[in-house]
Amino acid sequence: MGKSSEEYDFFEGAEYEDAPQSQRSQRHNGPHGSGRRAAKMKLDSPVSKVLRRLALITGLCAVASSAASAVHEIAPYAISFLVKVPGRYIALAAAICIGLTLMFVIGARATMPRNSTHGGVGGGGIVTIVMAGAFLVVGVAVGVLFPQGLILPDNDKAPVENAAQMEQGIEQAAGQCAAGWQGLDTGGIPGVSTVQMCTEPRVAFVSFESESMAAVGKAPIKVKIAELLNQYSDNENAQGDWRLLTGKRWMVFGEADKMTALQQQWGGDIENITASDDAAGTTNSDAGQ
Question: What residues form the membrane-spanning segments (predicted)?
Answer without folding.
Answer: 50-69, 89-108, 120-146
